[in-house]
Amino acid sequence: MPGLVSARAGRVAPMELADLMRVAQEANAIDIALGIPQQGPPPSAVLAAVGALQDGRHQYAPPAGLPELRRMIAERAGPIRQWDINPDTEVTITCGATEAAMMALLATTDPGDEVVLLEPYFDVFPGMIELAGAVPKPVGLSQPGWRLDIARVEQAITPRTRAILVNSPNNPTGQVLRRDEVLRLVELCVRHDLVCIADEVYEQFLYHDSTHISPSAMASGRNRTIVVGSLSKSLRMTGWRLGYCIAQPELTAVLRSVHERTTVGTSHALQAGAAASLSEELYTGRALQHRRDAVTKRLADLGFDVTPPDGGWFVLAGTETLGFGATELARRLVSEIGVLVAPGTAFFTDRAEGERWIRVTFARDPGATDEALDRIGRFLSR
User: Which residues contact residue 239 at a Cβ distance below 8 angstroms, ignoring those fewer than 6 apart?
Assistant: First the structure.
């Protein structure tokens, strides 16, 4: 509709999975594309949320978030980052990590600015950057192992670059940045006066000897890092849409101004529920270690090219050795055998590169996941 739609909104393409999800729903397909935990939130969270509603907590919560929830997040997040986080001035509760990342982009970039984006990336990131009026500048991670090439990142920086958007543990690859990679990235941000937006929603999901290192844990990175976090994964409440930003007070003040002019605040009762359960043991990678190993091995046995993920909930599996492009394979799997996977085209700017990969989650019901892999095996064997 020329003249009625903004140029930046018009550039944002529909989600790659949308059509496939409609077909999957009609076919009652097994979904191993989306990261949805098998179990629901802790019972204490549900009871506390219901109790908050029954007690009449139906109106606005403080825009920055309930003090008790901010305090508990600060207590959980601080030791990981060697940072005595102030919940009053450095933590903001958001409507999911998606809003947190959008707030960070709106708070730190102006129209026409550039944001360096490590690729493969979480599929919503390029569109979010464009909606903020900025320009995504993807920089590919290097094979083998999806490692950070700091020289390649620096080559992408121009006078218009304002921020680097980092996702570790990474969705879709499961790659976790090593300490030396994080250190070089922070040095780069300091040298070029850039903000580091660090999406760390999977920080609790690490496997074998992997260690999560946040740019905010580096002394020189703390005052220029915005941490984007989520309670969706560690409390198994993806539909509650509770995320947060952690940043130094000066950045937090701007983030809160953006937050107040977008969503104003987050659900009062659901925040109360989350606060009641954060004192319990979190859902972490220990619960998924076996499934990560089993699904990774099974995909490799089926002929996919697989790098075992260091963290997160997903495996990015290469299809070239099987003779399929990702789009064709994903469509045939859902329509012919009732299995939904995510085509890799959603995670790469170059569609030809994306056609080499599919994404599979190992966080879903184990029995259903195994059945889906059995079906894929039968499909490939014929």
Answer: none
3-state SS of the chain: helix, strand, coil percent to 5?
Answer: 45, 15, 40
For residue 242, the surrounding DSSP H or E stretch is strand 242-246
Among the listed residues 171, 92, 123, the one whose alpha carbon sits nearest the alpha carbon of residue 12: 123
Rounded CA gap, 182 and 118, in Å? 13
pLDDT of residue 11: 86
First to last CA, the chain: 46
145: left (phi over 0), alpha (psi -120 to 50) or beta: left
- The mean pLDDT value of the chain amounts to 95
What is d(CA 311, CA 362) in angstroms, rounded to the nearest whole number? 11
Q: Of all residues in the chain, what percent carry a pLDDT higher than 90?
A: 90
CA distance 283 to 350: 35
Whether the per-residue pLDDT at 280 is higher than 90: the answer is: no
Cβ atoms of 153 and 116 closer than 8 Å: yes
314-318 and 342-343 strand pairing:
unpaired
User: pLDDT tier at 2 (50, 70, 90 boundaries)?
Assistant: low
Local structure of residue 282 (DSSP, 8 states):
P
Domains of the chain: 7-40+284-381 (3.90.1150.10), 43-277 (3.40.640.10)
Cα angle for residues 334, 336, 337 (degrees, 5° grid) = 70
The enclosing H or E element of 199 equals strand 195-199
The helix/strand/coil state of 355 is: coil
The upper half-sphere exposure of residue 307, i.e. CA atoms within 13 Å in the direction of its Cβ, equals: 17
Asked if residue 1 has pLDDT above 70, the reply is no
Identify whether 120 is preceded by a cis peptide bond (ω within 30 of 0). yes
Output the six-digit token pair for 243: 């995320």
